[in-house]
Every structure is written in structure tokens, then in C-alpha cells.
Amino acid sequence: MEDDKKAMKNMFNITQIYLDTSEKRTKLPKLALEFFDAIDNDGDGKVQIHEFLGFTREQGLTKMNNRHLFDMLDRDGNGSLDFMEVMCLFYIVKSGRPFCGGCGCFIPDIFFTCTKCFHNEEGSFCLCTTCFHKNKFQHKHEQNYFLDNFAMLELQRLQAVAATKPESSSSTSHSTSNAIVPFTPAEKKQGNMKFELFNAGLAAIGGAVGNAAGAVAGAAATAGGSCNIM
Predict the structure, then answer these.
(1) Where on the tree of life does the source sit, at the highest rank (predicted)?
(2) Based on C-alpha coordinates, what's the Rg of the chain?
(3) What is the pLDDT of residues 156-195, one digit of tens each?
(4) What are the structural domains, with CATH classification, of the chain?
(5) Predicted structure pTM score
(6) How is residue 34 annotated by DSSP?
């Protein structure tokens, strides 16, 4: 619970930063006001639970249509949402923040996502750290196909970089990434990223992230020179 409060505080800070830095160069403030007015049906400057539930239901935001998220947004606990609290909701909607596929709760912090489902039109499958760690979920793909959001972002970056390089140079180029495991685009072509090697690397960490890089790189060499993302 305390971790969620800290994560929500960080989310409010992010929301405030976006509003502050975009005021003079984007239409975000105008859009934010329109978003608030769309929820505040009676125009009293605050959003009650029935307005929140009505809006999320009408907009098809089914995962957000619950009291739990409302209470998480209500940081002062006064039973209604002020402008900044609604702006945090606006950020959650626009940034696509996930809900856990295991427990169904909103995830305000680090999460794990299924890499094989990441580009699905219906949305990716995500898990909170607790459900992932305790294997409390049902999904068509196994745990070894999941990455946390930071590792997934790095994977996407590496794939984008690899896609801009000529085919002949991609196999010999060296990554400047800080990721703990090397990556080459050949793995993407095969369509079967070897997350088993990542698990083997984790088992060999021994308390040092650097050891994981060496362990997985060695495992990749043993596997015939193929590389993996983590």
C-alpha cells in the first residue's frame, strides 16, 4: 500500500511536469481543461464518484470503472477529485498505463509485459510485480516471455536501431547500450527470442548485474553465437 502511494505521488509529479512544460508549446492545457469539463457534469469544479464511474463507463474505459482507482486518484482523501487529480487520470488514459492481468488492479509503478502480445491490437498483457513473481496469472504465454517495462523499452530501442542499419553490418556491430544482455536483429527475424538465456543469466547473477551480462553472453556463445535481448 505504501509503495502504491509513493508510485502515485510520482505519477502526480509527472503529470504536473507535463502540464508545466507544455503550456506554451502544445494544446495540452486546453485538452486537459476539456477533459475535466467532460467529467465534471454539474460544473462545481470537482468530480464525484458517480461522475467518474459514469464517464469511464461511457468512454469504454472498463478497467478504470471502479472505486479502487478513484480512491488512488483521490490523494487528499476528501471523497472527490480536484483538477490535478483528474489531470492524473488524463495522464493515465493518454499514456496507456496498464492494469494487472492477474489481480485486475491498476499498476502505478513497474510492471511486466508479455513480449509476444506486445503488438496485439487489443492491447498487451501486463502484470504487477507481485502477480508475476508469485505466478498468479493465467495466460497463453509462459513467464519467460515477459520483461519489465524498462527492459522492454530498451528492447524496442535496440530493435529500432537495428532496423536502421544495413543487413551486412548488423551482425558485426557492437551495441553501446547499457542493457545487461546483448541483442542482434537476427533474433527478431527468427521470431523466437530466447528468454531462457535471460533466466539462466539471472540465476548466475550472484548479486552483481555485471555477472548476468557475462553469463548470458556466454550462454549465447554456447548456443551457436545467437544473441538475445536480456
Answers:
(1) Eukaryota
(2) 21
(3) 899 899 888 876 554 445 555 555 444 445 444 444 444 4
(4) 2-95 (1.10.238.10), 147-222 (no CATH)
(5) 0.69
(6) H
